[in-house]
Amino acid sequence: MWNQFFLMEEYTGNDHQYVGKLHSNMDKDDGNVKYVLTGEGAGNLFIIDEKSGDIHATKRLDREEKAMYTLHAKVIDRRTNREMEADTEFNIKIHDINDNEPKFAKEIFFASVPEMSEVADDADDQTYGNSARLVYSILQGQPYFSVDSENGTIKTALPGMDREVKENYQVVIQAKDMAGQMGGLSGTTTVSITLSDVNDSPPRFANHSFRVTAVESTEVGGAIGRIKADDPDIGRNAEMDYSIVGGHDMFNIITDQTTQEGVLVVRKALDFEDKRDYEFRVEVRNTYLDARFVHGLQFKDYATVRVTVEDVDESPIFTRNPYVIEVHEDTAAGSFVGVVSARDPDAENKPVKYSIDRHTDLERLFNIDSGNGSITTLKALDREMSRWHNISVVATEINNPRQTTRVPVFIKVLDVNDNAPEFAMSYDTFVCENVKAGQLIQTISAVDTDEPLVGHKFVFSIAPANPNFTIVDREDNTANILTRRGGFRRREMSMYLLPVVISDNDYPIQSSTSTLIVRVCACDSRGNMQTCNPEVLPFSDGLTTGALVAILLCVVILLMIVVLFAALRRQRKKEPLIISKEDVRDNVVSYNDEGGGEEDTQAFDIGTLRHPEVMDGNKMRRDIIPEMLFPYRRTSPAKDHNGDVRDFINGRLHDNDSDPTAPPYDSLATYAYEGSGSAAESLSSLESGATEGDQDYDYLTSWGPPFKKLAEMYVAKSPDRET
Q1: What is the C-alpha to C-alpha distance for residues 294 and 495, in angstroms, rounded to an integer?
Q2: Distance in angstroms (rounded) separating the CA atoms of residues 190 and 116
Q3: Which of 461, 428, 422, 429 is nearest to 445 (CA)?
Q4: Nearest to residue 441, comparing CAs of 402, 488, 396, 394?
Q5: Cα–chain-centroid distance for residue 377?
Q6: Distance separating alpha carbons of residues 181 and 185, to the nearest angstrom
Q7: Closest alpha carbon to 283 in 305, 256, 257
Q8: Strand partners for 186
């Protein structure tokens, strides 16, 4: 078969388009050969005439969708239906026609001069004819920009374009195919061009002189003002750095990276009284420089700054901070410790008073003179109790108490040798009955709360005439206790008290006597203690001194108990109700017994006790609900108004004993009944309407012995007898 490669142009119509013809050498034009087409698009896009081998396209062919098709052709015998020839492969290539206008990749391009170099492309086949040959031209953007007609490169057309004058430009570019000839298609796009910034503008101060005011109380590092230079550039090209020309002792300037301002700060404390005005020069320059513009321009500027210090009312200032004072611990109360001093830094130099913050001296150990700041002791100091005392002294302006300053004062208490050494611990010492002379029974040591500069050195000693023990100083602040003899016996002495004198080597020398208790114990042959209890002695041997002391102590305790018991019994005797023999009415006896309140007044009718004539036998108790277990008994009033008082009391006692409604407990019944027909009538001063001067009590002497005491009390006060 031949014609294995077919070429055809893009087909945009609706009718079948002839592609080409296949022919086999086996075809004798007798109608026995049948052509069959297979492969890409066979049957639906491409069809073949079975007899002639003509190939037609049945649909629109677009090269932009598919540029080549591969097909296979067969030759079959119509009679036997077998292949007369092997499969033959052939290609159909679609040629391009100018059916697409040039298109840019984006509708709007964004570029920055001078880096932008966008190139538009055409979808047509650039290898076939002039369909895809583009020509570029600029429709809008002249005279600032131009475009290369062949490759579409956009370039600046005017030199010295300044971003600070105009930053953004809109350029319209046209691309036309067919090499720009008549009939060619075209497309346009818009290019948004932004002039990128370069550092072509130096910073400049709008005002080359600045005046700043600062108060003298501004803290070190505090800001007192800001200055700013202008730079029309943007981004890093506008970043600036401020500095003081030649530096300055009192001030510094730092750059605020956010606002690009120079912040003036205080480097040292200001003092209005010392200096009030300062002047210095400030330089500003760009941080980043462009080498293309460095030679032609000075990218820095200068300004003069004048600082004026304002006066404020300042707090007092101490000459030192803090104070450290040393004092010996043996200093007596009222002794001088040290002095603090403060002054008013203002020009007026106002007077200052001193005080101690008592929150720092709770024990009130120190005092300070409010006028001169002298510190003295109020109490004696003890280094062993506290080695340091930290107090705060406050200085206050007298004319303005709100201006105060405090300073710490550290008082160190120096050591004085005022404590004697003593045993370092409590020792449990024993000596065996079978001990030999010169044997070690205890090693002792001492401690001293004082701290001498050269260290402790203790000396141990005992009475040289001690027949039982001896001491050996080891020269290392310890000593050994040795036995001077042997043959100790518990029956003779179960315990020895050994006084040990301990001295130090400081000045003045301090010494103390500590007693070492040595028990006599029974030990085995190797010196191990077995028991230290004293042996029980037979009665025939007599009593020991300890037993005699114990017996005597028991006797003394018994005597003290007997004396105490006798004193208590004597104190319990009841004293007479009326101590003074003066007027009975002038003696008030107080009882600390609280009454029942309403219960007493409701339980008993006091009115019945006043006089028998007002008694009512039908009165019942008001504190309980009466029960009719027994008939109420009516007590008749006294018929004999001249009856004796004793008979009256006995009658009332009998009535209460036989009354079933009476309280079950003992109760005190008080009667104000004196007896009917008495010549003296009532003796109560509360109910008497006459004064003492109007009464004559001589008749009381005729009443007999029972009223002798009463007669002595009243008759003695009679005016006649007094005269």
Answers
A1: 108
A2: 13
A3: 422
A4: 488
A5: 37
A6: 9
A7: 305
A8: 176
Asked if 446 contacts 361 with a C-beta cutoff of 8 angstroms, the reply is no
- Across residues 131-141, what is the average pLDDT? 77
Give the span between the Cα atoms of 356 and 616, in whole angstroms. Answer: 82
Burial of 508 (0-12, 13-18, 19+ CB in 10 A): exposed
Buried residues in 155-174 as b, exposed as e (16+ CB within 10 A): eeeeeebebeeeeebebebb
CA pair distance 82, 71, nearest whole angstrom: 20
Tell me the backbone φ, ψ of residue 658, rounded to 5 degrees.
Answer: -95, 0
* CA atoms of 102 and 124, how far apart (whole Å): 8
498 DSSP β-pair partners: 516
User: Which one-letter amino acid corresponds to residue 153?
Assistant: T
User: Which residue carries 């990749």 as its tokens?
Assistant: 105
Q: What's the CA gap between 646 and 707, in Å, rounded? A: 14
Residue with tokens 């004559």: 696
Task: Note the Cα 430 to chain centre separation in Å.
Answer: 58
For residue 189 the two structure tokens come to: 């796009």
Q: pLDDT tens digits, residue range 547-563? A: 888 899 999 999 999 99
The backbone torsions φ and ψ at residue 61, rounded to the nearest 5 degrees and listed phi first, read: -110, 125
**Ramachandran region, residue 141 (left: φ > 0; alpha: ψ -120 to 50; beta: rest):** left
Calpha distance 151→136 (Å, rounded): 7
Question: Phi, psi at residue 239, to the nearest 5°?
Answer: -70, 135
The partner residues of 722 in beta bridges, in order of sequence, read none
CA distance 150 to 133: 9
Global confidence as pTM: 0.38
Within 10 angstroms of residue 35's Cβ, the number of other Cβ atoms is 22
Half-sphere exposure of residue 524, counting CA atoms within 13 Å on the CB side? 3
- Rounded distance between C-alpha atoms, residue 723 and residue 717, angstroms: 10
Q: Is 113 helix (H, G, I), strand (E, B) or coil?
A: strand
Beta strands in 668-712 (DSSP E): none
Dist CA 37 CA 74 (whole Å):
7
Pull the structure tokens for residue 129: 């004819």
Assigned token pair, 198: 């370069």
CB-CB contact of 341 with 318 (8 Å) = yes
Distance CA 50, CA 33 (A): 8
In sequence order, the 6+-apart residues with CB closer than 8 A to the CB of 702 are none
Residues with Cβ within 8 Å of 332's Cβ and at least 6 positions away in sequence, in order, are 377, 380
Q: Which are the contacts of 271, defined by CB distance < 8 A and separation ≥ 6?
A: 216, 309, 345
CA-based nearest residue to 519, from 597, 433, 614: 433
Tokens 């079950």 map to which residue? 664
φ/ψ (deg, to 5) at 692: -65, -30
Residue 612 has pLDDT above 60, yes or no: no
Q: Which pLDDT tens digit goes with each residue over 349-361? A: 789 999 999 999 9
Residue the block writes with tokens 């400030």? 282
- What three-state secondary structure class fits 236? helix
Planar angle of CA 150, 153, 159, nearest 5 degrees: 125
Burial of 684 (0-12, 13-18, 19+ CB in 10 A): exposed
Is pLDDT at 618 greater than 60 in this prediction? no
For residue range 266-297, list pLDDT tens digits in order: 999 888 888 889 999 999 998 888 777 666 56
- Measured CA to CA in angstroms, residue 485 lies from 488, 560, 710 at distances of 8, 45, 88
Q: Enumerate long-range contacts of 10-17, CB under 8 Å, 24 or more apart.
A: 10/61, 10/62, 10/63, 10/94, 10/95, 10/96, 10/97, 10/99, 11/57, 11/60, 11/61, 12/60, 12/62, 12/99, 13/60, 14/60, 16/47, 16/56, 16/57, 16/58, 17/56, 17/57, 17/61
Q: Which residue has the tokens 């948004």?
A: 192
